[in-house]
Amino acid sequence: MLDYFDAFVTRYQPYKAGAWCYEDGCIYRGLVMLHDATGEDRWRAHLERLASAQVSHDGTLQGYRIDEYNIDNILSGRVLFALDRWTGDPRWMRAAGLLARQLETHPRTKTGNYWHKLRYPHQVWLDGLYMALPFQIEYAQHVEDPARVQDALAQMRAALGVTIRQDGLYAHGFDAEGVQDWADSATGQSPSVWARALGWQAMALVDCAELVGIDAFAQAELLKPTQSLLAHLAALQAGDGGWWQVINMPELAGNYTETSASAMFAYAFASAAGLGLGTEQIAKAEDRVFDFLQTRLQSENGQACLTDICHVAGLGGFEGVYRDGSPDYYLTEARVSDDAKGTGPLMMAHARVLQGQAAQLTPA
Predict the structure, then answer these.
(1) How many of the other CB atoms lie within 10 Å of CB of 41?
(2) What is the dihedral of CA 178, 181, 185, 187, to 10 degrees?
(3) ∠ CA 6-49-67 to the nearest 5 degrees?
(4) Which of 62, 190, 220, 336 makes the best surface tag, with the fewest CB within 10 Å?
């Protein structure tokens, strides 16, 4: 697996022609974790090569504009703390401060949650929980600002409240104004449960728990919802060990087990085990999903590639198409190989497993 990651990152081209974006951030986060798990300098070298091309010495970010208020742009900022720790170069924290300034003025819903983007007003998407909140906590801890930590936890709690469904799962999106065509007139929620949206949510929850500690996480009333979500996910695992694109509709014509969400759940389960939140059910699901992910590494054009990744999905108008959030909509999006949203989480998940193995070998 490590050889695949090394080959992938060696040939990796920045996702949006070098502009600062969350997709690259998925790979960057994986590189930080692989370096921490293995101690191997190659992962740090890859990260410094890629990130240095996007972050100027004055901390400006290539292609980034604060006034777009795009919550996705915050995710990549998490690697800036590791780069600062490794190098001491002031550019990294200057860039982190720029992203923090975006959050200080980022528009919010009535529930206090960040809008997903300026062009998606009054909307909360599960994706955005992972994009912004772990960074906000990590930045707050770095600058010793506990109010920012509490705000992030309050936002997480509020987001769970407006997106939870009667079946205990979570809607991909919520429209606080109830004006979007995809939003339910009573709840404001989008109509379907998209696997990768739950993947972003699950990763955000376990990362926030790790950052603040289990006791503070429980005091914020987030521990029980996290345990409940992980149990629901384990119960919904498909026969092949992955998870369905429309996760709660296995009989839906054209539905398929999707790789990126499965990698995100693998990461969430492995992280939960490290936090002491593992159960026998979760452990079994974790074993099965890693076997599944191994089968998704297939040869294409003579090189190993991670296959069957949903390229993109969202809500509302985008590039001339209206994304209505229906179950059938999620099956229209293209499947691709070696996408950052799949390989990045797989790198992270594998690093978590390596960390867990090392912990088991360390004398008490």
Answers:
(1) 9
(2) -70
(3) 115
(4) 62
Sequence letter at residue 133: L
Angstrom CA distances, 310 to 75, 148, 218, 223, stand at 19, 33, 33, 29
* Tokens coding 245: 């694109």
Model confidence pLDDT, tens digit, residues 174-209: 999 999 999 999 999 999 999 999 999 999 999 999
Residue pair 84/135 in contact (Cβ under 8 Å)? The answer is no
Of 312, 334, 182, the C-alpha closest to 256 is: 334
DSSP annotation of 67 reads G
* pLDDT score recorded for residue 360: 75
Question: Would you tell me how many other CB atoms lie within 10 Å of the CB of residue 215?
Answer: 9
Yes or no: say if 230 and 268 are a contact pair by the CB < 8 Å rule: yes
Contact in structure between 258 and 341 (CB atoms under 8 Å): no
Q: Which two tokens stand for residue 263?
A: 């990698």
Q: List the structure tokens of 328.
A: 């059938």
Entry field: residues in the chain: 364
pLDDT one-digit tens code per residue, 122-141: 999 999 999 999 999 999 99
pLDDT band at 358 (very low <50, low <70, confident <90, very high): confident
CA-to-CA distance for 51 and 46, rounded, in angstroms? Answer: 9
